[in-house]
Amino acid sequence: MTNKAISTTEARSRISEITDEVEQKKVIYDFTRHGKVVAKLVPASFSDGSLSPRLAEELKEFLAEHGGAMAKLAKR
Length: 76
What we know:
Elements: E1 3-7, H1 8-25, E2 28-33, E3 36-41, H2 53-75
Parallel strand pairs: 1-2
Antiparallel strand pairs: 2-3
């Protein structure tokens, strides 16, 4: 899969072309503002079923804090 970066200003004027490229060629676009990535556009089919590292860590913290209560609710 190819990654490309584009400024939000340029993306605004080329969104249809960019969307076609993402859909057909499975390209991932990083939208940048002042040189920093602020958003990504990925194909809808882009999912390997795994959690992102950040989401996995947040889930781990949540379960550590609320896991007992969640287990009790699951038994109801």
